[in-house]
Specification:
This protein is mostly beta strands. The protein has a single domain, classed as Immunoglobulin-like, CATH 2.60.40.680. About 5% of the residues lie in helices and about 35% in strands. It is built from one helix and ten strands, in the order αββββββββββ. The strands form two sheets. Strands 4-7-2-1-10 form a five-stranded mixed β-sheet, with no helix packed on it. Strands 3, 5, 6, 8 and 9 form a five-stranded antiparallel β-sheet that branches. The longest helix is centred in the first third of the chain and has 14 residues. It is elongated and about 45 Å long. The N terminus is likely disordered.
Length: about 190
Amino acid sequence: MKRVLTWALALFLVAAPGCGGGTGRSPAPRPSLPQAGPAPEQPAGEAGIPTRNALITTMPAVAGMAPGTEFEFTLRGEFCTPLHQASGRIVYDPAVVQPLAVRRGELIPAGAVYLAKLDVTGFVPFAFTALPGDAGIAPGRGELLRVRFRLLAEPPPGFRIRLLNDAAYLQLRTSGGGRLSFDLASEVVPQ
């Protein structure tokens, strides 16, 4: 029971707006890390299991969309290693878009503790964990979450919603608590 409470507290702290000394606002700008392009196609392992762990974000091309238009941003996972726990932040410009809803993806087991918040300006924090003794996410592919946004203003050139690439917030972990290495990919697709 104590371990379950520890996991739940850790999930709350990761997703809470004030964690890491923050003030509930968007994190201060940091030097940007190079953003990964689309992951190269990897040959599938046994039964279509990926050969590497990866997180893939997808959003439509918003250039030319009228204010008021709604669209979805998705986060998918491809895992060759069982995943027990994950946390992260989806970062957006609140002057350009507004998050309306967030939906848990089919890849996250029904028994897992899951949290995503829409009441923090500038980012959507999310976290999930399998409970002790539960298997978590088995190797495979699928959707982790989907966020619906409304366009508030004409987007500037190159506008993107992105997964914050910061080790303090973006973490994948095994059932033993060890970090999983993973690749990042980002896709912008025609609407």
